[in-house]
Each structure stands twice: as C-alpha cells, then as structure tokens.
Amino acid sequence: xSAGKPQAIEFEYKRHGTQTLIAGMNVTTGKIIGECGATRTxxxxxxxxxxxxxxxxxxxxxxxxxxxxxxxxxxxxxxxVAELCGRTDDIGIKGKAGILASMPSREEFLSDPDKKxxxxxxxxxxxxxxxIEVWFSMLARKVIKRGNFKSTEELKxxxxxxxxxxxxxxxxxxxxxxxxxxxxx
Length: 185
Hints:
By secondary structure, this protein is α+β, with helices and mostly antiparallel strands. The chain has one domain (20-169): 2-Layer Sandwich (Nucleotidyltransferase, domain 5). It has helices spanning 42-55, 75-84, 103-111, 131-144, 152-169; strands at 20-25, 32-37, 62-66, 117-121. Helix 1 packs parallel to helix 2. It starts with 19 loop residues before the first strand and ends in a 16-residue tail after the last helix.
C-alpha cells in the first residue's frame, strides 16, 4: 500500500470463518467482558447477560445498552430478566399474549426502570451512542483489520487476548466530548 493507491489483497486470500463477539463495558471502570463464539443467537445473548449479572453480584440495578437487534428483545431474554428480577406471575405467550406478545411489548418490559435489570435501546443508526460500539471500533483497528488468522480459534484467541490486555493496561471510562452544539450547514 502507498499513498493514493488502494490496498491489494493477494489472490490466495482464504476466509477461514468468523467469530461473533458478544461484549459489554462497565462504564465506570472501562473494563470489557466478552465472549467469542460461532453464533449470535438469542440464547447466546441470554447466556452472556446471565453471566454478567452472576459475575457482578451486589448491584441494586444493572443497566444494559443495546441497539435494535432482535436478539436484544427476545423471548429468552425477557424470561431471564423476569426470573432474575424475581417475577413469578405469567408473562404470556410469544406472539399471542402478555409481555411476550410482541417485540414492542418485550422492549417495554425490558426498558421498565422499576426492575433491577433495565435495558436501554439506542435509536437506529446511532451505534456511536453506545460505548461498547466505540470499543468495537478500537478492536477492529488494533486487532482485526489487516489481520491474518489461520483459524477461527486463532482469531478468538487474539480477540480474547486483546480484551485481557485492554483491561490490564488501557481500561478507563470514556470521556464524552460532544457538547450538544447544533451543527450548521
């Protein structure tokens, strides 16, 4: 690569697969918790949320910020949150009744601030509002971009090693610099 010329990719380039990183950031410390896997299902997210809450006992409230991805408003996530919040009443049937009736009803339940686990959803096309997305950009620039990984296991190892390194040496709360000033064209 040189100035003014696009990056060339060798014709021997072979894709060895992908990994999905489900991660969160403790905004008060800047530390990252993450899991790599082959899938990005509602069960994967539910297990991650359960892990975060279980490994971080003692908080009066847990706040999670997510985008509009359907797994962030899934039936299994609602069931987990209801269970962890000690809810024992009927929460309905997916697609038919109660809290589980629709994605909007599930979002309303998950967003309810009167529970100990509360989800906050960023607007569509506003991933920059979620601090973990800013961190994902750092991961992409420092580890993944132009990386050459011989297997998904090697990719996973590099990602998890970067999380460990980041938590030991770079983790701190992000300082927002946007002042809310109106942009004039």
